[in-house]
Amino acid sequence: MNIKSLQNRANIFSSVKVLLAVVVLWAYNNKMLSPSIEAVSSMSRSFVVGGVQQNPAYYDPYSLSSAIIFFFLIFMTLARNEIAPAIRSKNFNINSISLTLSSLIISILVIALSIFGDFSPAKGMPFLLIGAPIILASLLVLDDSEILPVKRLSGLHPLVDWAEGNPGIINTVIIFSAFLGMAFNISFVPPIISSDLSSFFSFILIIMALYVYYQISSEAGNPLTHDQRSSTMVLIIGLPLIIYISTRILFLLHNPDSVTRERWDLSWSFMDMKNTFEINAWPLQPDFPEDTRWQFLFSAILNSARATLLSIVLCTILGVIIGVTRLSSNKLASGLATVYVEVFRNMPLAVLLFLVMLQLGETLPLFSEEANIAGWIYYSNQGLHLPRPETLRIIIALAIVFSLWAWGRYRDRDGIDDSSEALARKSLIWSMALVACLGILLTGDMSLPNYVKTNPNIPGTWTIEEGSSFEVTKAFMALIIGLTLFTASVVAEIVRGSIQALPRGQVEAAVSLGLSPYQRLRLVILPQALRSMIPLLNSQYMNVWKNSSLAIIVAYSDIFYVIFVMMNNVGKLIPLFLLLLVIYQAGSLLISGIMNFYNARVTRVKI
Amino acid sequence: MSQDTSFFESSMRRILELERGVAGRSRWDSDIKADSSLSLLCILISGLFSVSVLLNTESSIDVGGEVTSGDIWIYSTAVALSWLVASWIILISVVKRTRMAPAFNGRIRLPWFGSTALLGILSSFIMLFLVEWIFDILVISMRWDIVWANRVSVMLGPNLTEAMTQDYLVSENWRIWPIIFLVWAIAGAAYGASNTSVRSFLIGFGLVTVVVFLFAGNPLEANYNIDRVLFRFSLATALSLACFVAMRAYSKRVEEYKVNRAKRNIGLTAVATFFLTIILLDPPEFVKDIAGFLAGFGILESQLELITREGVPPARWGGLLINLIVAAAGCVLGFAIGVVLAFSRQSNLPILKWPGIAVIEIVRSGPLICWLYFAMYLLPDVADPLFTNPEDFDNIVRMMAIFSLFGGCYIAEVIRGGLQAVDSGQKEAALALGLSPMQIKLQVELPNAVRTTLPSIVSVFIGLWKDTTLLFIIEIIDFFRIAKTMANTDLRFLGDFLEPVYFTALVFWVFAFYLSRVSMNVEKGLGLVKEGGGDVA
Questions:
Q1: What is the dihedral of CA B227, B228, B234, B235, to 10 degrees?
Q2: What is this model's ipTM?
Q3: Which residue in A44, A554, B59, B338 could disulfide with A475, CB within 3.0 to 4.6 Å?
């Protein structure tokens, strides 16, 4: 096993690798390029009968060529990466972005040619429109190469010397003219090329790829050149994919098949029409036959938002309780908390929601059994009916709570009083205030649920009068319970981990200082634990928002449910799908923004 | 004599420690004799109380219908035991912990047993409620026959079940059993190669074997040949044990680098098993041709002839098989996609960076269910021309693709964090040694990053496994869908719609719990400190 045989083995191995790569690349190029060529031909075929375009897939040459070529130009600019460094550097000369400029010029030329030149739909247009990106890629490949024949002839003529000094321009001009020549005379080109354009293009791409691979593996050149060559390689490999995606999407937008065209029709005008199904939404109940789809969507967004908000609040409270319990010294309590976390963390949310919904339906009594608490709260397997206080009194109660909080902030403006007496006094004041609010809410003109038996013999007609109660549907309850139980287990783990990550000495010092448990929590443990908790809680809250889309399992009218039914009714999948993505992304960004703001406040003090 | 008292003393001491763990320090902490006599008193009283509860519960439930007297005894015993614990805790707290504490600014003295004991009492009531409810579900109010009757269907889907249990169809048994044998063997070998103690492996493995045998061997409502199935499972168990013993002996005798190589090979075999499953279930054309060609030579003729038969197309798969295959695709292919995306996002080349960022952010912005719908209805529009036979791109393949993409984006974020944490000295040293950029990425950065972030990657895997339950919304006949519709399809079990759902929850929980245990063991093995405790996914 001497060096030579090892080297030979390495060479053979690498050439086997290269051969394999070429075979795979050939198959991949062909697979991507042949449908693209067909798509371009069908999109450029104009079949006008009696003034009406009969080919639904037809695009006028300007839009077709500009779409394909400008889409590719974006990737070309990214690959070349000239503009960002040129802007950043202080001395900006035109040479530094010359290749990007020349690719722009060539693209405009090609677009103009496609409009004014008469290219046949079968061969000419595909050759032009798919060959142009390949030409642009070849600009990258041959950018810094020299032209051997010119080198030999140097010194013969000043033009030749200039050509030798600017190989880029010469390369560009030669290749582009060759390309144009073939494009214009496509019918005269030998049939081996024109009959199977995709093989021809694949072949050219493989040659370019091999050349760039040779350049990269020789590792000549500074890191900047090496980076450029790597980008060129990525562009060459990605070129068939880019072409395929752009042509396919253009074709889908003007698809001959009407159902597919409906799916991909990028206009939201159908949202201004009246909605065709009913939903059950709380703060903003849309009016069934009258309101537009936008209003239904907005109500659904409010539905999702209130479910998410309530889940976040409840799961944080429950999660903190369980997380702290898990750290308690009572073995039974910490054992139960561990069991809770282990059970609910590994439970799939869809199954949990379904289970909760079914179990609620089983356990809660039937509506006809008139189960109630003192005539005020009616509960059944169709939901909870709570009494509805007067709006004015709700506002007064909220105002009392808010003013108490503001007065507390004012009183603590010079620092919070942490002694036990202050704590006792504060809890007394807050509990009295809450009792007073409850009293205000419950007295006065509060409407109780009015159980009406329209026909005493037929339980199906028994109902609770509209508007007399505040209804909490079973679907909402199931969603809240499921989401809370599931997310609380993860929050408990986060809380436990953050508190356990605190140095032991902190808690021991707090104990030795004689701080009460509440003071320990508020002054020592929480400020430090919150710093590590908040980024993790951020991602969990975004998960709650995205998991609320599972409300379709419990038939709760949230965003996904409404959009899903609209998709089934209208068939315009892409516009609705884009709406869905945008709404969920906006929600995530909002939650992330709030948590980042809170994070900045918590980490204001540098520890 | 002295041994007697010391046994008595040590057991009393243990009981006192248990009490302190549950209810806090007692008032008679310094006087052990008084303490222990009080404990005995409390235990006696609570024992009597629980016996009375036992007799009460037993007499209050009537035998009838599906409830046998054995069931009633089990339920009553469970309830009585939990009442034993609850009453014991209450008694201890009242007897031993009570002291008078000042309240309302020191003006009144109220009896107070301390927060630990209060927590103990609360937890005991919660435990009581849970035990009653669970045992009620298990033995009294629910009939589990529907689950026993549909065992095979829920594992493999209705089409494959028909093919495997009914005689009028060609049996497709041979497609599943090699995979089961392989999986058992790989599990045994993996545990043998890593440093698990024999006792812990045997306990866990024994538990799994017992559960499998009980589940497969229960003759109630079985629509398949139990003896044959049990025989094959015992073969698999024996194979697994043999692999465990062999790998353990090997790893004890051989140098560490060879053990690491063996572990890597086991991992590669596991990945190959995933691909083998798909090939065995639906062999592609070239595999059939090769098998036919080889069978012509007379080697293994009957086995190779099986492969040349018509495969089971993915549309006819179902049950747990689909969940496992889609989750495995999401994990395996998703890991590859995630590594590529992570390196793209990290790279300096804008042509890689911006598309990488775009893909990751777009895929992560929507919930998975939204992407499942995209894959089901919109992806075929985009991808159909790439398939020579558009029907090849059927539901399961679409789901595998989208799960891989989704899992890949989450794994990419995790690995990116790990890549950023790799010490730059490593990369500089590799550059100085003359490694090419690709070599640096694959052999220096990636192993470091994966090692640091392995717990988070496993938590992404667990999340992907749990998310395969969403497939039921897309009309794919997976485990959850079969469980939901079990009650509607069999006339004998029309009203039992809750039992299959509980069974589903149990099965999914077991797999996820096992994966999280593996993750904890891996963490311990790698010596990483678990901080934060939060998951990325």
A1: 160
A2: 0.90
A3: A554
